[in-house]
């Protein structure tokens, strides 16, 4: 019997030793000491050239709570939940930052997928501010006299930019009804089409504009085409001139379709720190270093709860922004890309991930980590 217990004890010791080594290796790779920023808060500034960092306590946050966040992420990585990076900006300073992927580091462009939609929304707002567009009540079909639009009903001719921005155009579209690799997914059919703008314009109407929320990447692409038509330059060039260059964003990728239209609903790649700059621009209500980049009115209306989402409980949709019940709002991309703005806390949080499609536990991870660790860390 003593021999049996000795064997059990040795086995348990071996397990503990292995776990301790694993934890030590993990902490060597992604230590909490590296996650928590260093430095002092030295006052207001604009991160155009680079972000400043400071200890969380300098801006009223608890380092120990944020260390718990890093430790949980290490456990999630062991479960093959692929978190690529986390970046937390409080009062304009990076207080925590970590990169957990061998593929994507601090200097790696990250596919932001549908966060592209929020950029497109900002460009529509700028185009209205600069008088290239009249307002968000401008009609969609009037921009495309070169097309003979199919299924052209009275309702289709009533679709406005606002309906497009709030995903309530009323077009027949099945993007979230099937996985993206399913041939029944309208997104796949749209990607394979020879003219992506016309493909969207030709869709049948299934609802009166403004009544039904239907997630539609194609409609965001049509907004990009409208930017090109109204300003005379492609959306990516318009973004470079009016957002990227003023914010000091130098590295990015923005693909175009076969007809020369910059992708309006997906496709952009950014550095996580530049994702944070875009979030910070919205946190500051469109103001940046002495210049009103996007009007405060547009920022406010973009984060308004315009229409309830029918796919995610309690969430609403603004002007291509997800609006939460807790008065935060987010640019969100496939696989778990998040730029979340918390106006009341003066906080921006960026997550980049590669979550598995259809896994609800993974897809809720970023939001859960914010609620469990980041918000409770604020004193």
Describe the protein's architecture and organization:
The chain is of the alpha+beta class and 379 residues long. The chain is 37% helix and 12% strand. The strands form three sheets. Strands 2-1-12-11-10-9-8-7 form an eight-stranded antiparallel beta sheet, with helices on both faces. It has a two-stranded antiparallel sheet with strand order 3-4. Strand 1 and strand 2 form a beta hairpin. Helix 3 runs antiparallel to helix 13, helix 4 packs parallel to helix 8 and helix 4 packs across helix 9. The radius of gyration is 23 Å and the shape is globular. The N terminus is likely disordered.
Essential attributes:
Beta-lactamase, 379 residues, alpha+beta, 12 strands, globular
